[in-house]
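Not sure how to ask, but would you mind making up any protein sequence you like and the tokens describing how it folds?
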Amino acid sequence: MPKVLIIFFLSFFLSCQSQPTSKLINVKGKTIEERFNPPEGYKRKNYSTGCFEYYLKTLPLKPAGEKVHTYDGSIKQPDNVYEAVVNIDVGTKDLQQCADAIMRLRAEYLFATEQFDEIHFNFTNGNKASYSKYAEGYRFQPKANAWVKTAKEDHSYKAFRDYLELVFTYAGSLSLSRELMQIDIEDMEPRRCF
């Protein structure tokens, strides 16, 4: 399955609304908040600019009607199951899928807000993958199942993206499910501001 970062809006969500889709979607909107209007009778919560919630709703979108492209540039099929495409580079390797999308968004937010010590995920084998350790030059050695200092310290965005490729290789839905807190769906909302 091609791996991409996209926003899926389930067809039942749009079809269950009492108002036409044209009132829910502003094709000129350049962010999630601008593109998608709340259904009639609802309003959005306001969040501080430094919060993850604010970051998510202000994610830049590609122009309305833009197709989702996979890592190799091909158009994701089927091409009619999404309403918007986040304007974010997915790289050129076949790595990002499922859980990787939320890990990527969370890590990008933490990197952008310089919360480097908060960027960490667990591999499927339970090994912790810390960005701070990676930036210090430690690299994961799969055969030894250990982190070993083999590189120079590097806190650049490129090093961050290299770290994420490592995470996408060794972490996924299973490891993420072990890290996350389980809640009832009616209690679901974006995580509080940090």
